[in-house]
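Build the 3D complex.
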Amino acid sequence: MSKNNDKKLKIGIYELTGCAGDGLLILDCEMELVDIFQAADIQSFLMAKSDNIDGELDIALVEGSVSTEREIEELKDIRKRAQVVVAFGLCATHGGIQARFSEEEWQKNLKEVYGDIEMSHTKAVHSKPIDEYIDVDLYLPGCPVSKDQFLNFLVRALGGSPPEVYPNPVCVTCKYNENDCLLLKGIPCLGPLTADGCGAICPNHNVPCYGCWGPAEGANFTSEFYLLQEKGFDMEAIKKRMANYSGTKLQEFFEKFKKESQ
Amino acid sequence: MKTISIDHLARVEGNGGIHATIDGKVVTDVKFTINEGPRLIEKLALGRTPDEDVSMSPRICAICTCSHKNSVLRAFENAMDIKITPKAYLLREMMHMGEFIESHSLHTFYLALPDFLGYPNAIAMAADYAFEVQIALEMKHYGNHIMKVTNGRYIHGENAIIGGFGKWPSREEMIFIKDRALQFMPFVQKTVDLFCGLEYPNSPNAETNYMCCEPGSGKFGFWGDEILISTGETVPRDDYKSVTNEFVVSHSFAKHSLYQDKPFTVGALARIVNLGDRLEGQAGEMYKKYFNETWKTNPFYHNPSRTLEIMYAFERIPGLVDEFLKLEDPASVVDYEVKDGKGTGLVEAPRGLLIHHHEVQDGVVSYVDIITPTAQNTEDIERYCHVAAQ
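Done.
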């Protein structure tokens, strides 16, 4: 099992602004953790270890949104050092819940929360996903990412393959699981619009999907929105729900949809 | 005048640094910076429905997501006069136990212990302490398992909802949780002995005020409707602002708090100082055996305090399962109407008192105020670092 460290993939795990849930999920692989640390050379993982090295990397996993000027610099430095940069978790892929404000709303809210005080250690910037600042090679969405998704990614990466993609919306897995459809009961569930990978956890518990993996790439949003409208759902309410976890990535769609539906 | 800076603190949950300014032989200033950017979470839910708020607010913190969930749920249920069933109440408590076991075992074994034994991380300790590392990982896994069974997944589960739960766990799942708790007890005893027996540095040594929830009925516990201060005062939940007095400082996106112009401490040590004499069973015996006056003035004793709470949680779980299974299966969620109101929910997160205040107007969220344990501890963290640096 233990290979020479020179031959192992050098991996760095970095946290920008967020809840640290994606890094924590790695530590939550309790039964696999010793193997993970043996199979890969974990160069940097601030939450887990103190002997961190900021050198050349094969893979950088970056979680969190970019929310300060200091983070922009950190991110650019990571890009320079890493062969492959992975946006790890919803905050990095989509900007997370903190990314949905418009620039104007963000300025106003920042002032309301922090007043006129200028921060001396760094300057806050409007939260954005990491691909607003650097080229990103791979995306692993999820709030948080799932354990299977991470372990599959790692095992494939160790073998030199790209990660598994989850092209379907949550609805597909939900049907496999034979759950009663919540939309048919009049409950606003975002399963048809949201990227799968969680295993339809919320509908499995009779709880509607809140969209925490971000929008599904293959979903036909326009058609789905008209369908929901036909079913009598309040469209403004659905749009607000969908915006909660979409970060910056659905804003264009909403603008287009607004024009179309006028 | 020179400054010693640690830009990135390692093995902590979050992203912070410490900067000490020294003039000759005197430490003139210590600043604890929070490097993460602002997320404006209190603004995110405005105009959204209460259930969206319940989904989003716990995203503040992955490690204490269940504490945020219980706190925001208590706030909304207070705001809208919703009374959950006794069965749901027990399951919410079970969820909290899972989080304490997971978070405390992570903190003590993974984050803190390597420093005391001289290793860069917990995995490196495995070479010399294979058994301890293995069982500690299993203990953490068990805490996560409880959160998955009760709240749907390890991090940011959604099964706990306003009015109760989306779905009850099965009888088999609950019995498994009970059986595992009993199996873990010998290792839990070892954990307490290990951390209570470690030699901690004498410095920093300074008095402070400790705050936590008053669980009521003379019991130990992780939530309540009053704040208990080590001076003996209690403050009702709706007057929480008189205790915390949050304010903004220019070197941290986490706010700071002062009580009567003085810093205070929340967290495991605060709970053990304020409530430790209420511990029963084996945890009560361990408290009598190990707790002494030195704990009260030295933040290093947060770690042994955490292990006493791990023991409390393990001893509480079998009874919780028995009580839960004795009750009939009512609907997992009570019917309620969204109505206008204001509510505060107090809980103890693993790192201390957590306050959620949420208001509803015209069916949507109109105001949110969340006071995290870190925003209460920041002043004391700086003060204790100052004493230690000197």
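The mean pLDDT of chain A is 91.
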